[in-house]
């Protein structure tokens, strides 16, 4: 049993498996959820469920938050009085993706109450949480990071201390932008492959272990299916705009990555459809190549 008492709020698709990993690693886990149904994520685990977030905050050493956005965190800390309930010397870890500057402001407010803060967004989605293979980007004081490292390692394959508060969020936003830019590369390449009459499934299978592979290309052949693709597409659109807003707030120009990333998100549902129901390769390779040369990309 690890000595740290851990609170967890945000038992969703990703947060639920993360909380399970924490409990299974031997931490004393305490949970709270707005909806009772969310508590099912902790079923079968040794844990303590709380009726209110204030009672949870009063007993934990570290509070993990896996919420939708920074607004949800502000609502908990201020609107629901969470800050007043946390004990001085405790720490709050934010595993959601947010704005680097806003995370700095949250950290400053908590510091005034003697509470430490780490922005610790994770990459890998629900599959990574289930397999305990998330990547966690962390910003905050080194001493607090060191104290929380065993906790972070319970659900992560890689944990990286990026620097001061906000740097974890900066790294995650750049990760998201790169993922969606790589998705656009895949959409463009497979669009051409269809015009060439190439068997898309065979191409994908070969690329998975070739130099052209990427994390998003592997996900397209695995956990991203036709059912989840529209939901992920909406999240990607939100994430790339979030990235762009954060960069502009720092007087940086995100236009190139933003535009390519958004185009990648727009092509997600289509490329998943191609890979799940690929068109048969053209019988006449020469004719397929001729058609490819005569078709403009705008006609796709």
From TrEMBL:
Domain 6-phosphogluconate dehydrogenase NADP-binding: 6-163
The entry's keywords: NAD, Oxidoreductase
Domain 3-hydroxyisobutyrate dehydrogenase-like NAD-binding residue range list: 166-252
Pfam families reported for this sequence: NAD_binding_11, NAD_binding_2
Active site annotation, chain numbering: 172
Superkingdom of origin organism: Bacteria
MF (Gene Ontology): NAD binding; NADP binding; oxidoreductase activity
Protein name as catalogued: 3-hydroxyisobutyrate dehydrogenase
Organism: Tistlia consotensis USBA 355
Lineage of producing organism: Bacteria, Pseudomonadati, Pseudomonadota, Alphaproteobacteria, Rhodospirillales
């Amino acid at each position: 049993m690890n000595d740290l008492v851990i609170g967890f709020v945000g038992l969703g698709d990703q947060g639920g498996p993360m909380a399970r990993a924490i409990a299974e690693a031997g931490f004393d886990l305490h949970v709270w959820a707005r909806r009772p149904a969310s508590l099912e994520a902790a079923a079968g685990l040794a844990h303590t469920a709380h009726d209110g977030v204030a009672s949870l905050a009063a007993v934990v050493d570290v509070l993990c938050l896996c919420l939708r956005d920074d607004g949800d965190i502000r609502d908990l800390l201020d609107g629901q009085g969470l800050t007043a309930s946390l004990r001085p010397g405790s720490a709050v870890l934010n595993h959601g993706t947010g704005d680097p500057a806003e995370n700095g402001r949250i950290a400053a407010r908590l510091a005034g109450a003697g509470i430490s803060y780490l922005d610790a967004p994770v990459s890998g989605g629900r599959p990574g949480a289930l397999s305990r293979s998330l990547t966690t980007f962390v910003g905050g004081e080194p001493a607090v990071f060191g104290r929380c490292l065993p906790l972070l390692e319970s659900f992560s394959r890689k944990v990286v201390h990026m620097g001061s508060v906000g740097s974890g969020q900066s790294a995650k936003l750049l990760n998201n932008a790169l993922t969606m830019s790589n998705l656009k590369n895949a959409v463009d390449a497979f669009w051409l492959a269809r015009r060439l009459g190439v068997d898309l499934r065979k191409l994908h299978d070969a690329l998975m272990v070739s130099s052209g592979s990427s994390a998003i290309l592997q996900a397209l052949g695995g956990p991203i299916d036709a059912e989840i693709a529209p939901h992920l597409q909406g999240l990607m659109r939100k994430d790339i705009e979030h990235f762009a807003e954060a960069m502009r707030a720092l007087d940086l120009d995100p236009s190139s990555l933003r535009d390519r990333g958004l185009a990648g998100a727009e092509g997600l549902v289509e490329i998943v459809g191609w890979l799940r129901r690929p068109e048969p390769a053209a019988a006449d390779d020469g004719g397929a190549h001729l058609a490819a040369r005569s078709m403009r990309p705008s006609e796709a």
